[in-house]
Design goal:
Papain-like_cys_pep_sf, 2 domains, C8orf32 fold, 35% helix, alpha+beta, disordered N terminus, CAP/Cytokinesis_protein, 326 residues, 25% strand, Transglutaminase-like, single chain, Transglutaminase-like domain-containing protein
């Protein structure tokens, strides 16, 4: 490839990534809108030219202006709804009317659940004629979910959006913040990890009902999805790599009462800490280099400790496991 083309691609990609910062800055300075759907869509159309930037603007505005309504249905738990209809066309009409009503209510009060987040995102994308879908499925939000393969209810909704013929994944709900179990409140904390997330990383926490929306290189089953550990965003952001990534339940040795966790690679100058649920303090974990060039953590365990284990890199969680003593 000609070096000039390579240089162009480098500059283009650098500018492309930098533009998201500029998009975020501009969107976060937007004033309040009287008619949000129409006024916001017009503003975004005028401010940004490419579909990528417009989608990013939609994503950032929703994530920073809509709070999760924990009082409505509880943290990430769906509510059953019914639609009465006389024909297929009538069903579509009634559903669209219901969805638009939810969107307007969420925009009016500035809060909603994953349903409202995904519907607002869809509505704004549609106004800009950008192909978009709402995806429903299962999520793993905590260590308690590991092994829960028989769960019957779909607890989450997110979006896919088409950019230049390629479907991209977006989860505005998880990008907006998180639920604090100690205060029982939603904490706003913008996280763009959930914008155009790598499908192979996204599938570790989100499992769509329809297999085609996994969008990843290797399809997974519902059972294998729930069998894996909890992968927090900082695991991917810092380039950790487990030697075995599909086992979320770790067994202690019958004699040693130790938990062994191996990594193929670790980021430089990153210490790893661990804590069992209920512990008052985190513990520093020593890392040993093995003969086969892997990195191994050895953690002591006894029956008095909780079965939920979380690993941290500095102060950020990276992995969650269930422990099963033998």
């Amino acid at each position: 490839m000609n070096w000039r083309i390579l240089l162009f691609l480098f500059v283009f990609n650098f500018t492309y990534s930098q533009n998201f910062g500029l998009v975020d800055k501009k969107v976060k300075s937007y004033p309040e809108f009287e008619d949000v759907l129409n006024d916001l869509s017009i503003r975004i159309k005028n401010d940004f030219l490419s579909d990528e930037e417009r989608v990013r603007a939609i994503f950032t505005w929703i994530a920073t202006n809509i709070k999760y309504d924990v009082e409505k249905v509880g943290p990430f738990v769906p509510k059953m709804e019914w639609i009465v209809y006389s024909s297929k066309s009538n069903y579509i009409w009634e559903r669209n009317r219901r969805d638009l009503r939810k969107v307007k209510k969420a925009l009016k009060y500035g809060k909603g659940t994953c349903t409202e987040y995904s519907l607002i995102f869809r509505e704004l994308c549609r106004k800009m004629e950008i192909p978009v879908n709402v995806i429903k499925g299962y999520t793993k939000t905590g260590i308690k979910d590991i092994g829960d393969k028989d769960r019957y209810y779909k607890d989450h909704a997110w979006n896919v959006v088409q950019i230049r013929g390629e479907w991209k994944i977006v989860d505005v709900t998880w990008a907006a913040g998180y639920f604090d179990i100690e205060t029982n409140k939603f904490i706003s904390a913008f996280d763009d990890f959930y914008f155009f997330t790598d499908p192979d990383e996204f599938i570790t926490s989100h499992f769509p009902i329809q297999e085609k929306w996994q969008l990843n290189s290797k399809k997974v089953t519902k059972a294998s999805f729930f069998a894996t550990p909890i992968f927090f965003p900082d695991y991917y952001k810092n380039n950790f790599k487990l030697s075995v990534s599909d086992i979320g339940v770790l067994k202690t040795g019958a004699d040693s009462k130790k938990i062994i966790i191996s990594f193929d690679s670790l980021p430089k100058d990153k210490k790893i800490y661990y804590v069992f649920a209920g512990d008052k303090y985190v513990n520093h974990s020593r890392i040993n280099r093995t003969s086969d060039n892997k990195f191994q953590l050895s953690i002591k365990y006894n029956e008095h400790r909780n079965s939920h284990l979380i690993l941290f890199s500095e102060k950020d969680p990276i992995l969650g496991f269930k422990i099963k003593p033998e």
